[in-house]
């Protein structure tokens, strides 16, 4: 069984709570990871960037899985896992996603990319 939710937003700060509202039926980890991926687009690609958020749920042999994908039109702004210092005001989002997700990655092409994670 496979379920898909696809949403289109402009990457703005007000899109994050709207995204969480659409994902209210999903668990906290799904909402958190989706919001972090959206926030990365705002911070590193630019506010107002069009994004597509997909949440795909599957019943896998080893239990249910959820894949979150955030697609934007900039193939160059790639996520980088960093160690945030204790006093840093940013840099923890991808580390948090890395800790929660079973795996994550980037699919790149000439006119965009998709950053994804699986929980």
TrEMBL record:
Signal sequence coordinates: none
Sequence ranges assigned to domain Histidine kinase/HSP90-like ATPase in this UniProt record: 29-116
Entry keyword set: Kinase, Serine/threonine-protein kinase, Transferase
SUPFAM superfamilies: ATPase domain of HSP90 chaperone/DNA topoisomerase II/histidine kinase
PANTHER family in the cross-refs: ANTI-SIGMA-F FACTOR RSBW, ANTI-SIGMA-F FACTOR RSBW-RELATED
UniProt name for this protein: Histidine kinase/HSP90-like ATPase domain-containing protein
